[in-house]
Amino acid sequence: MISTNSGRILHTFSSRVWNHQHRCLPVFSASCRCRHVRLASTDHGSRDGRNETNNTNTFLASALGATCVVGATLYWKLRHDKLQAAELDYEPGSIRPNLPTYSLADVSKHKTKDAGIWVTYKNGVYDITEYVTGHPGGSKILLAAGGSMEPYWNMYGVHKQSGILQIAEQYRIGNIVEKPAGSEGLSADNPYANDPPRSPILIPSSRAPFNAEPPALLLAENFLTPNDLFYIRNHLPVPDIDPRKYSLEVQGSQKTAVLDLSGLRKGFKKKSVAAVVMCAGNRRSEMVRIKSVKGLNWGAAAIGNANWAGATLNDVLKHSGIDLEGTEKKHLVFEGMDKGPEGSVYGASIPIEMARSLKDEIVIAYEMNGEPIPRDHGYPVRVIIPGIVGARQVKWLNKIYLSDEESECHWQRRDYKGFNSSIDWHNVDFDSSVAIMQLPVISAICDPPEGTELEEGSDEVTLRGYAWSGGGRGIVRVDVSADGGKTWQNAELKPNGQSPYRAWAWTLWEATIPIPEGKAGDVELVCKAVDVSYNVQPDSVEGIWNLRGVLSNAWHRIKVTVPPSSG
Amino acid sequence: MISTNSGRILHTFSSRVWNHQHRCLPVFSASCRCRHVRLASTDHGSRDGRNETNNTNTFLASALGATCVVGATLYWKLRHDKLQAAELDYEPGSIRPNLPTYSLADVSKHKTKDAGIWVTYKNGVYDITEYVTGHPGGSKILLAAGGSMEPYWNMYGVHKQSGILQIAEQYRIGNIVEKPAGSEGLSADNPYANDPPRSPILIPSSRAPFNAEPPALLLAENFLTPNDLFYIRNHLPVPDIDPRKYSLEVQGSQKTAVLDLSGLRKGFKKKSVAAVVMCAGNRRSEMVRIKSVKGLNWGAAAIGNANWAGATLNDVLKHSGIDLEGTEKKHLVFEGMDKGPEGSVYGASIPIEMARSLKDEIVIAYEMNGEPIPRDHGYPVRVIIPGIVGARQVKWLNKIYLSDEESECHWQRRDYKGFNSSIDWHNVDFDSSVAIMQLPVISAICDPPEGTELEEGSDEVTLRGYAWSGGGRGIVRVDVSADGGKTWQNAELKPNGQSPYRAWAWTLWEATIPIPEGKAGDVELVCKAVDVSYNVQPDSVEGIWNLRGVLSNAWHRIKVTVPPSSG
């Protein structure tokens, strides 16, 4: 079994694996509250290991309790007697002169079971192949395979207790002295030299401008995506804005209002909205497999769901003397402070009808998940327009005004539009299509990841993922299949607390489904969602392929493998 | 060539066909204004027949001018000399003692070129095979094949000039004395005995209750579907309501307002909205081909677009003291006057959020296309809720009230819901799904009809059809293909004059696309639409099959044939 969050798997850990394994096991976990409850119930199945299991559970319960807030967790499963035996006379992660030294390149070659699975912590190199090989349930640790565990440990800080670190040293095989490459290598005149530091958990698809997504596996863990895990989609260098000097210009027909950050925070009622921001190119990599496209090679994690807070558009416009109902202008334009080399700024606009109908939902936001918006996400202020593509939700917001015309920005007029699959760069006419606003219904399987090897003889598999639709259309059903789409089962939808007609947040889902009997080898897992307007995802990527690789919302298909049963 | 509304085809008529054909030719036409202009231009290509063509054009121009208002037209193409020769000494359609008598059953066997194509007018039987065989462009006349021309002539009354009727007699082969069967056969105690008369153009899928759709071929002719052509979906016998006694009860928390028809007409501002009404089961017949479903075997014409006029919901509720914004009730319920055998009435409800956001768009309607709503469509009053399924747009509206619960009507709770394709009658749980409200994006090819034989050597084909999406989402693109979906071309969208975010009406479209070179035999024509939220239609019927055969919005595929070129 791949998933770590079902009672059945934990039972396996307690009663079988745990007693045959004499080393401490690193593993990621999720859905802590659930797991905590289920752990207790697994005790009944582990007579011969009761003491160990109880101790383990006590540890887990404490670690998990502390990390439930952020959701996903990396922890060390401990055996009490082993822990006592493992006391060290050196700092975990410090250089050990009696061990060989490896390069980062050496470590990065060790990502698979065949090559061995290595990870690093500070100056330590660890071989965790034995654990991973024996326990497919620990798949999440593979996220760190061939690289450093630190980003995960920094994120879920509870694990750096010295006892746990000492245990980790039992897997120690060598030293590393190199530092990972970062943006510090950029010369001072490089426009991206002043970009902020980012979590190394993120997987970059481009470094300048910086664009990166988290491992999809971690997405379905949290209804609210942690800021450090939220995908980053920058078009230009990140502005470095002094909050004391920040101002937002709102141009009315009679006057131009200028609001500073303090004015935005204190002058208006604070409105919070849990809303998805998604890149139009999310899941583009599936289109690339059909035929090449222009664009970042996004997996299924160029999407996140956060709680955004700030002033409503309506309040800000009213304060600035702009009358959305009375105006004859056709578009509301937003401009950012991120500038291209020739000085032009990023901008976007929305149709006036959309501004009107969403005026109390659109947020001029200064908070993301209760914190100041991080620099990569628009510090200090961005606009959140729920239900539409990320590209219009201008970051580093500098100016708002009405116009007869759409934003003239490249990304409004010459990008982020849909075309049929017979249009390519030789015959495209961007004026013939409309700028993407509301997005169509989409879903994805986050867990298990593509290519996962399930446990030998698995007869079922637990899938978890997200589903979302633009325009506030709530998700009413997610169908999952373990036979490539021949038969379907409804997934369990986790309530998001929003009205189905104003559902700006995503819906997380989970399903445990049988694997077709006698099946060994590849299993194709599929999911597809239905929104409240009964829109469905299209069956194939071929039918929606487009030259920019946007709007990639076909049924999400991944392959996992079931080893043939040896019994 | 199949289509009759392109310049190229008319040119063919003028310069080639017309001169080789010594009989008068019946044919349907459409898009009159367009054709009128193009006709004039075809004169240049018909030197040897200029006189005839000009006379023909003069006649056509006059007939077409008179019928442009209604759109689709049946007319006789005339040859001037033939017309003069054809004067008769009897009434067209009267019994001719020297000709054989046929039964309706005899006539109904003559629908194909192989069997001969017969039609009737009054007591006359006509064999029009020669015309149809020689001229595939006349395909619309096949709608009347095996039956009476009268419904079409009654609809487009201009054709019953005595001259035209005299010409028709040249095709006369016999007499008919039977009357077509109608509902007059029902005994007085049959609950359907008092149903209204319907246009025989409609193709019934059930007679009690009466359900019928027009030939899809006629749908794309008119932005506003003529009342007589509008599909009928009745669940119960049609109430026979005396307008002087009609009343609408609107139950507020404090009082119940009772409005009569005159009060509705005179007491409120009249609001008009062009809006689609579509049955959830439109295009069900495509699902039936995969696996049987429960439901009427609708083709692609269980949809219509009409101009509805009446009082807004908001005005009626305000008048009745109902506060949509302030209420804590969750649903707005509508009840009709159509009763089941056990006395229960048809009803439906919509979520309160929907009532709020559409309060100025929902119409308590008493007019359909400028006329009192016909009995089959809810006379004297129905509710029009733009953007949602027809089933909630209660006809013969009797009562409106707020409720904590959805309508308890069978059709709200135990019907008109979506399920995945692995749910069938043995495992369905209607409570597990949500009542269909807003509909997903759909489109269909109306012209040419399935199975049409194109002209020998055709290298292109003209397609026409409709596209629409629920929730007011306008259509931004229709893709058409003549190679089964391998390559695509954009269709030309006819503007519907509505905002893309409040697009309640459909979008008619047209495209002329090349037939793959050297292609003979079956050609698969396909269309698919994209709405402003970039929702697309699913590729396959298999992926959306459901036990009730609703929401059938896969790519619309039809087969036509191209005879092998004899040259």
UniProtKB/TrEMBL annotation, chains A, B:
**Origin, by domain of life?**
Eukaryota
Q: Which InterPro entries does its entry note?
A: Cyt_B5-like_heme/steroid-bd, Cyt_B5-like_heme/steroid_sf, Cyt_B5_heme-BS, Ig_E-set, MoCF_OxRdtse_dimer, Mopterin_OxRdtase_euk, OxRdtase_Mopterin-bd_dom, OxRdtase_Mopterin-bd_sf
- Taking the first listed entry, what is the main subcellular location of this protein, grouped into a coarse class? mitochondrion
Named cofactor requirement(s): heme b; Mo-molybdopterin
Instruction: List each copy of the Cytochrome b5 heme-binding domain by range.
Output: 99-177
Q: Name the residues that span the membrane.
A: none
GO BP terms in the entry = sulfur compound metabolic process
Q: Which GO terms describe its molecular function?
A: heme binding; molybdenum ion binding; molybdopterin cofactor binding; sulfite oxidase activity
Q: Which terms are listed as keywords in the entry?
A: Heme, Iron, Metal-binding, Mitochondrion, Molybdenum, Oxidoreductase
**Where found, per UniProt?**
Mitochondrion intermembrane space
UniProt cross-references to SMART domains, sorted A to Z: Cyt-b5
Q: In which pathway does it act?
A: Energy metabolism; sulfur metabolism; Sulfur metabolism
PANTHER family, sorted: SULFITE OXIDASE, MITOCHONDRIAL, SULFITE REDUCTASE
Subunit description: Homodimer.
Q: Which protein are we looking at?
A: Sulfite oxidase
Q: Which organism is it from?
A: Littorina saxatilis
